[in-house]
Amino acid sequence: MENRTKLDRGFTLWFTGLSGAGKTTIAEIVERELRDRLGTVEVLDGDIVRTNLSKGLGFSREDRDTNILRIGFVANLLTRNGVAVIVSAISPYEEVRDQVRRDIGDDFVEIFVDAPLQVCAERDVKGLYKKAFSGEIPAFTGVSDPYEPPAAPELHIKTNEEEPQESARRVISKLEELGYLEPVKQYDRA
Ligand SMILES: Nc1ncnc2c1ncn2[C@@H]1O[C@H](COP(=O)(O)OP(=O)(O)OP(=O)(O)O)[C@@H](O)[C@H]1O
Ligand SMILES: [Mg+2]
Q1: pTM attached to this predicted model
Q2: Model confidence at 31: pLDDT above 70
């Protein structure tokens, strides 16, 4: 059965969405679950990548695309070696996300972490929206720079309609449905 062989394959869970939409929050819950179930999982979070792999890059379209292509390159290397990879990056441009999807192929699983701009701005987890609206930060995604929502993500999560735990549970279910994880019924415990 084709799905059975997928249990041994790597995959890239790619979380895209506005700042404050909930990518890192969901990714951290999913990471714990994958570590329990698979043993190995690697996380590439935009905030951390920008301090090392992409240090020095800014927020022009070209630099944003370079950042995403670098993350995609590393994710692809890991994925093809059987690793479960989680990427959390705003990744605002569809064209470059689709390029990463083509590079990684079937094992690319795109999760659109969606919340209305107003909700993200009210959460203002990092205090960045305040600065974006006042103009102190230029080219801020969703405020003064584009965000292109995915046309056909594997999963669309609306984080203003459910709790992070529920969002994470749906990501795990999707991986089970796609054949990357053995279904475990008692996921809801704890
Ligand atoms: N269903 C949900 N999923 C994720 N986060 C949620 C959800 N509901 C509410 N939240 C809250 O939304 C905020 C999301 O912040 P988080 O840092 O995860 O965003 P992010 O997408 O990683 O942003 P950035 O791109 O700036 O890193 C948190 O305060 C979280 O508690
Ligand atoms: Mg984050």
Answers
A1: 0.95
A2: yes
Residue 105's SS3 state is helix
Taking the CA of 167 as reference, the closest ligand is 1
Q: What is the pLDDT of residue 5?
A: 67
CA-proximal residue: ligand 1, atom 11 (nearest):
22
Active site residue 91: yes
Residue corresponding to tokens 């479960």: 84
Please answer whether residues 115 and 105 qualify as being in contact, where contact means their C-beta atoms are separated by less than 8 angstroms. no
pLDDT in tens, 102-146: 999 999 999 999 999 999 999 999 999 999 999 999 999 999 999
- Decide: 108 and 12 in contact? Cβ < 8 Å: yes
23-38 and 164-178 are packed helices; what angle lies between their axes, rounded to 10 degrees? 50
Ligand 1, atom 31, lies closest to the CA of 25
Cα–ligand 2 centroid distance for 5 (angstroms): 32
Mutation test of ligand 1: which of 13, 14, 16, 25 has the most ligand atoms closer than 8 Å to its C-beta? 25
The string of pLDDT tens digits covering residues 145-155 is 999 999 999 99
Determine which one of 91, 144, 167, 173 is catalytic: 91
